[in-house]
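Title: Comparing notes on inverse folding

I've been comparing how different people in this forum approach sequence design from structure. To keep things fair, I'm posting one structure and asking everyone to reply with a full sequence. Here's the target:
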């Protein structure tokens, strides 16, 4: 009995599972090298020569024109992640590929796919619970954390060179459109302009319509404009049925023309009557109507898209009217300014000056089309994660910190689960290690050493130190926090010698410089080994953060000597000291007015910044240590905004969970302190999507195809992958 057609092929049981797993892995391998801030870009070239250069996972997978049905299931993961969160597409796909890779090893060990499926689902549910447990909660109006969320999303993409500016634009845009009904990022328009620098990008609190005035005689700009929004054409409506009219006299023809002109004049008069200064029309505007509108001084724009009309309605508070006869004064919107402006050589209509605008526009600029296209993709990711963060109010440390914590806890969970599902849960935990491992590899780190280092931080199990044992016990440190704060500020942060510490710390009158140096070493020991109580550790770590924050200013002045104007004036020692003291006094006074506590750490911080600034700007006769600088136009905000993040996040002494990979510094660090954070939903959605895709693929044990089932590609590890058509289309370089 013949059931299948002659050209049909069938693969079943273990062979079918191998086909499916390797096809899905091929997709994951295609995007793995793009993960993280040090990830590489892909160049995709189609048959007509069009080029896309990007490291955005979902864009790569969409443009690769994958025709393998199993591989397309993995592509759907990326699309779902993009829709639900806006970022994390590469993470979701890589996890799915690794889950299947781990499953293949289990299958080869005679673990049934059904058992693997059950174990994976148990692990996924447990993982989401763990993520919820370690998540940090945001307080209301926590703009700093939102900036960090946006910056993290854009890191490693084409927008990174101006990520601070763009993060601010993204956060301001999302906050502007937020209302009682939620956040709809469709109310944020993105206009791409080729020409200029990325730093020329800006946020317009209103709408930019990519059109021009319909008549040159209309005003270029209208201030305090009442805006009418029409969905239909501003023309005489044609009859809906075909009709034939015989004209036997020229006067009759003139009567037709006069009647049409009269109707058009009445339409314009209606707009004048309700007080419209500007009109946006979704369809065309008759030439005669354009003439009358220009005569009345009304600025008109035609063929406006329905999306732009919706944005205009949201921005101006107006209502889109379908029938001009029904328009009323209450239907008009308002804008402080409607003007035709040149942007990158093209004319556009700017609708601005809208109080509490609920529709805004981001103008993205770049030197080439490729740059602005990639910039748009980065901005879309950032918009998505900021929206998600505001909706959920919970975030996680990035840099692989969450995945390492999950893998550790899931292995503990596996021990409590009986049966072979335990092996599947352990495999799930191993699969999650792929994220920090890939981040490390893409950053040029040794993946094995980095994973070990991360686990050490998260478990609190540290290697024995080779240096001398501490001379001061944790109890002594806890009992005398103020004293140790003093010597730590002066010794560890300021880098002063013990003799100078001695002269500054009254509490140390009975101690020798050598003793103080030993005590500093003890503090360092306990910080490194995590043996202080949470309050004391937090105090000392905040002091260390001040030092690190100051170090970051090095690039502002020392790496960019042109960042401030160099003066030939010479400052004496007294003038130098007076300038420093005056600045510290002024900055501290501003702090107190803003409600900040001014302690010795604050004063030290301001003093060192001002010393550097004066040294860079003036010739200084005294021999002062070269220090990092700051922005003199904002003397106090940077320092406290850095700590505003710590105050607004509910940490509950979970700092050990924050250790992740800082690709920029090529090492392991505290992700929360560095501002590398991601929305909770990004991780939970990635785990959900990856698990369900892996489960669906593992449950397939029979593949029947009308086409060729031959294996078509070879993966990075030399294994044959693909099958069922493989991947075609764009992909000139991967």
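Reply #1:
Here's my take.
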């Amino acid at each position: 009995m013949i059931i299948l057609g002659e050209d049909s092929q069938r693969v079943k049981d273990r062979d079918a599972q191998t086909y499916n797993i390797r096809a899905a892995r091929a997709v994951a391998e295609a995007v793995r090298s793009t993960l993280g801030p040090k990830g590489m870009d892909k160049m995709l070239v189609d048959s007509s020569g069009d080029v896309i250069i990007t490291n955005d996972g979902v864009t790569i997978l969409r443009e690769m024109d994958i025709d393998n049905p199993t591989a397309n299931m993995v592509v759907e993961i990326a699309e779902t992640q993009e829709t639900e969160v806006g970022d994390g597409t590469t993470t979701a796909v890589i996890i799915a590929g690794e889950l299947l890779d781990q499953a293949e090893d289990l299958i080869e060990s005679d673990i049934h796919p059904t058992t693997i499926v059950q174990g994976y689902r148990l692990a996924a549910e447990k993982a989401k619970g763990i993520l919820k447990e370690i998540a940090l909660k945001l307080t209301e109006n926590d703009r700093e954390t939102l900036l960090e969320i946006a910056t993290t999303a854009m890191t490693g993409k084409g927008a990174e060179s101006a990520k601070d500016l763009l993060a601010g634009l993204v956060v301001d845009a999302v906050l502007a459109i937020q209302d009682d009904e939620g956040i709809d990022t469709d109310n944020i328009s993105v206009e791409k302009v080729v020409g200029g620098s990325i730093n020329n990008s800006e946020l317009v609190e209103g709408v930019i319509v990519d059109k021009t005035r319909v008549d040159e005689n209309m005003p270029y700009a209208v201030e305090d404009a009442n805006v009418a929004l029409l969905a239909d054409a501003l023309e005489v409506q044609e009859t809906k049925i075909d009709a034939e009219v015989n004209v036997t006299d020229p006067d009759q023809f003139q009567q037709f023309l006069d009647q049409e002109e009269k109707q058009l004049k009445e339409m314009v008069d209606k707009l004048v009557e309700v007080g419209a200064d500007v009109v946006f029309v979704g369809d065309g505007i008759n030439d005669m109507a354009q003439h009358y509108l220009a005569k009345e001084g009304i600025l008109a724009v035609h063929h406006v898209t329905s999306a732009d009309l919706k944005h205009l309605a949201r921005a101006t508070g107006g209502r889109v009217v379908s029938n001009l006869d029904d328009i009323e004064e209450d239907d008009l919107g308002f804008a402080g300014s409607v003007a035709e402006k040149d942007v990158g050589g093209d004319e556009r209509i700017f609708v601005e000056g809208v109080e509490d605008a609920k529709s805004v526009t981001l103008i993205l600029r770049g030197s080439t089309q490729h740059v602005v296209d990639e910039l748009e993709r980065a901005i879309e990711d950032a918009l998505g994660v900021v929206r998600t963060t505001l909706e959920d109010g919970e975030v996680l440390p990035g840099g692989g910190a969450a995945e390492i914590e999950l893998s550790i806890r899931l292995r503990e969970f596996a021990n409590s689960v009986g049966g072979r599902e335990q092996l599947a849960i352990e495999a799930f935990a191993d699969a999650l290690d792929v994220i920090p491992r890939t981040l490390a590899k893409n950053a040029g780190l040794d993946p094995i050493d980095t994973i070990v280092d991360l686990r050490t931080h998260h478990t609190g199990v540290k290697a024995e130190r080779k240096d001398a044992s501490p001379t001061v016990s944790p109890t002594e440190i806890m009992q005398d926090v103020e004293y140790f704060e003093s010597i730590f500020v002066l010794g560890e942060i300021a880098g002063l010698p013990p003799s100078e510490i001695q002269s500054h710390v009254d509490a140390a009158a009975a101690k020798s410089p050598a003793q103080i140096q030993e005590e500093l070493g003890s503090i360092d020991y306990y910080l490194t080994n995590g043996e202080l109580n949470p309050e004391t550790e937090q105090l000392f770590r905040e002091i260390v953060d001040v030092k690190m924050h100051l170090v970051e200013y090095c690039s502002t002045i020392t790496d960019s000597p042109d960042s401030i104007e160099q003066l030939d004036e010479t400052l004496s020692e007294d003038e130098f000291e007076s300038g420093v003291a005056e600045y510290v006094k002024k900055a501290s006074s501003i702090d107190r007015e803003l409600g900040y506590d001014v302690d010795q750490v604050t004063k030290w911080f301001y003093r060192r910044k001002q010393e550097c600034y004066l040294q860079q700007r003036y010739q200084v006769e005294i021999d002062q240590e070269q220090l990092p600088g700051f922005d003199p136009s904002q003397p106090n905000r940077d320092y406290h905004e850095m700590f505003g993040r710590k105050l607004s996040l509910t940490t509950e002494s979970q700092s050990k969970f924050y250790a992740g990979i800082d690709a920029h510094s090529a090492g392991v660090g505290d992700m929360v302190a560095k501002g590398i954070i991601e929305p909770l939903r990004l991780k939970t959605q990635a785990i959900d999507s990856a698990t369900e895709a892996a489960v669906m693929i593992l449950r397939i044990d029979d593949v029947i195809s009308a086409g060729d089932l031959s294996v078509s590609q070879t993966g990075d590890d030399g294994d044959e992958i693909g099958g069922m058509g493989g991947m075609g289309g764009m992909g000139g370089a991967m």
